[in-house]
Amino acid sequence: MLNTPDSAPAEKIPARPAAFPARPAALPARPAAFPARPAAGLALLALAALAFLTGCGGVGGSVSTAVKDSSSAVATARIALRQDMDGKLTQAATATSLDDGLKEVETSRSSVLKLSPATQEERVVQKQALDVLDQCAAGFATARAALAANDGGSPSLSDGDKALADAQDALKQLEGTVGSR
């Protein structure tokens, strides 16, 4: 038994006094080889903050990230939709997958929309990305409508899968465009 009242009462446990080193009276003086340069430190800090805020990759890097995230969301939704068509996934699970994918596309679209392109080329890339992300959102809307109608009506689940496949192709084309710049 460890440290129970029967085996080791608190009065019988020896205690050692704490030994702390003495505090220095003052900090040592700065060596002459390293004089204080507050202006240089502030400039370095401002440069680091600017690099962080611009993302170091500009519009292309942010669009590339949005495209990759959206492409993953579309691929996952297509898998869920095909499994639903094969009877291997419940309608509720498929609906959740489609909802999550749509949220990811909307988040990516919001990120691209907030960018501030500095050049005409960046504005073109931003516009292309927004158009493709809108196509993805429309593909998700078609797939969700097909899942809700799931009675053989219009749109069908295969129509939803086709809309998502078209969105996936557009994302791949955009990824190739953004990656080549």
Helices, strands, pairings?
Elements: H1 38-54, H2 58-85, H3 91-113, H4 120-149, H5 157-179
Helix pairs in contact: 2-3, 2-4, 2-5, 3-4, 4-5
Describe this protein's structure.
This protein has 181 residues and is an all-alpha fold. The protein has a domain at 58-179. Helices cover 67% and strands 0% of the residues. It has helices spanning 38-54, 58-85, 91-113, 120-149, 157-179. α2 packs antiparallel against α5. The longest helix has 30 residues, at 120-149. The protein is flat. The model is unreliable at 39-56 (pLDDT under 50).
Characterize this entry briefly.
By secondary structure, the protein is mainly alpha-helical.
Tell me the β content.
under 5%
Quick one: overall form? Answer: flat
Order of helices and strands: HHHHH
Radius of gyration computed on alpha carbons:
30 Å
Overall structural class, as computed from helix and strand content, comes to mainly alpha
Number of strands: 0
Biggest pleated sheet: none
- Uncertain runs are 39-56
Give average pLDDT, whole number: 81
Instruction: Provide the helix percentage.
Output: 55-70%
Please report the distance between the alpha carbons of the first and last residues.
70 Å
Number of helical stretches of at least 4 residues: 5
